[in-house]
Design a protein that fits this description.
mainly beta, Jelly Rolls, five-stranded antiparallel sheet, about 10% helix, globular, binds calcium ion
Length: about 150
């Protein structure tokens, strides 16, 4: 009974968080591979559907989604990732504007076999109406899973 109560409180908290800001990405929970383009493989972690990038020694492997950002001034890219075996130059996040310019961030991911949430505050829209956000696994070996990939409008 106690567990049930905890679970429903947790669901309530999640629903509350979802209402707080609008998510511009489609298919954030990755229940189908649609919308996400690139090198991603459609995979499962237990019963949960996820995307997987398999690192290559000499190439970046990435996936992306293009979104209309409307009049947004500030965005937050939020996702969770998990890897137990990736060794390489790290993970790169990128927002690309229609003129080809882009803003990116390199992160050193935790490689501990646990899901980890990451948030990137992105204000470099510079008047663009559309942006393409990509998650890029830099040269290396092993693989990484991704899920719950959201682009929140502040
Ligand atoms: Ca999922």
């Amino acid at each position: 009974m106690k567990q049930l109560l905890c679970l429903s409180l947790f669901s309530f908290a999640l629903a509350g968080a979802a209402h707080a800001s609008e998510n511009l990405f489609k298919n954030s929970d990755v229940n189908t591979p649609t919308v996400w383009q690139g090198d991603r493989k459609f995979d499962k972690d237990g019963d949960n559907k996820v995307l997987r990038l398999v690192a290559k020694p000499k190439d970046t492997q990435s996936f992306w989604q293009e979104v209309s950002v409307g009049d947004a001034k500030d965005l937050v890219l939020v996702f969770r990732y998990k890897s137990a075996d990736y060794k390489g130059r790290g993970l790169q996040l990128r927002g690309r504007r229609p003129d080809g310019s882009s803003t990116f961030r390199n992160i050193t991911p935790k490689i501990d076999g646990q899901w980890t949430e990451y948030r990137w505050n992105f204000s470099e829209i510079r008047g663009a109406k559309k942006l393409t956000f990509s998650l890029e696994l830099l040269e290396g070996e092993g693989s990484m899973l991704f899920d719950d990939i959201q682009l929140l409008k502040k």
